[in-house]
Write a structure and sequence with these properties.
By secondary structure, the protein is an alpha/beta fold. The chain is built from 9 helices and 11 strands.
Length: 309
């Protein structure tokens, strides 16, 4: 039981529910730490993937509800299983033994107290891998400070700086102001920070606003990863803000315009994702291998447990 869950204000939602008693707020999670999948992932940025893959651990639940979330099965539909501290440590150990370059904790903002405790326990049991925090950046500084002794690198999203869009799509008007504070805090840790921005079809100006802020506040302090992998996901309710782009991929022309934006703002230190015009790579966490075999190698699955290759 984590004391921060007694009246949970660990994320900006400040639901104030008692998760230790089984109550749930916006994220849909109690005090139990639930995971959906762990394995080697080869689709991250080169410094994270390395030669042997990133030891990725997907956490069930989320404090955002992005209409186009590609991992909606685990972030919004609750797919996952509770794990004890000992099982979490065994997962970390299995990833290390499989050759993982690091531990990569995905979407854990709502479970920071439990994850901080679990990561310390894994370290005390001999797991020495560096830890990346892979999140939406919808996080308070107070919560992030719980991680400062266990996290060695940061992989935050910067989804949008348009509060009208974040209200409609993420149900979080304060996402832009909150994310900016979180990213600035991360960038002053003297640790590696890779800021990810997913470009959306038909919303070039939103990306321009993000790049303008990044070039002013974070250039030289963090790397930018500009992603083009937006893929329509039909499992979510339609919204007015999504109608202009939800049913299509980015076009080749839009991809070229993104490169021009990077040049315009002088951002040349980071990563640009090549456009792939298909949806075959979309994960399905019902399967032991949610990704294509070239992208990942499973170690643990929420339904099957440890996977022996």
């Amino acid at each position: 039981m984590e004391k921060e869950y007694e009246s949970c204000t660990i994320c900006p939602r400040s639901c104030a529910v008692n998760r230790n008693r089984g109550e749930t707020g916006f994220c849909g999670e109690t005090a139990s730490l639930r995971l959906s999948w762990a394995g080697l992932h080869f689709g991250e940025e080169p410094p994270v993937t390395g030669k042997n893959g990133s030891g990725t651990i997907f956490v069930t639940g989320c404090n955002l509800r992005c209409n186009f979330c590609q991992n909606f099965q685990i972030s919004q539909e609750g797919m996952g299983a509770p794990v004890s501290l000992s099982t979490f440590t065994r997962i970390c150990t299995a990833l290390a033994e499989a050759g993982a370059e690091n531990l990569n904790i995905v979407t854990g903002s709502h479970a920071i107290p439990a994850l901080a405790t679990a990561l310390r326990e894994a370290r005390s049991c001999g797991v020495t891998l560096p830890v990346y925090w892979n999140s939406s950046a919808y996080e308070t500084i107070e919560a992030l400070e719980l991680l400062q002794d266990v996290v060695t690198g940061w992989l935050p999203d910067l989804k949008t700086l348009n509060p009208l869009f974040s209200t409609s799509v993420f149900q979080a008007k304060d996402y832009p102001s909150t994310a900016k504070k979180a990213l600035l805090w991360m960038a002053h840790r003297n640790q590696q920070v890779i800021v990810r921005h997913l470009a959306l079809p038909g919303r070039k100006e939103d990306t321009r606003i993000v790049l303008d802020w990044f070039s002013t506040k974070l250039k030289g302090k963090a790397l930018l990863s500009l992603m083009t992998q937006y893929t329509p996901v039909s499992a979510h309710p339609q919204s007015h803000e999504l109608t202009e782009f939800q049913n299509r991929l980015l076009t080749e022309q839009e991809s070229k315009e993104l490169v021009l934006l990077l040049d315009e703002y002088g951002i040349d230190d980071g990563f640009f994702q090549e456009l792939v015009n298909d949806t075959e790579w979309l994960p399905d966490f019902i399967r032991t291998q949610p990704f294509s075999s070239s992208l990942a190698r499973p170690v643990w699955h929420w339904k099957e447990g440890f996977i022996h290759s």
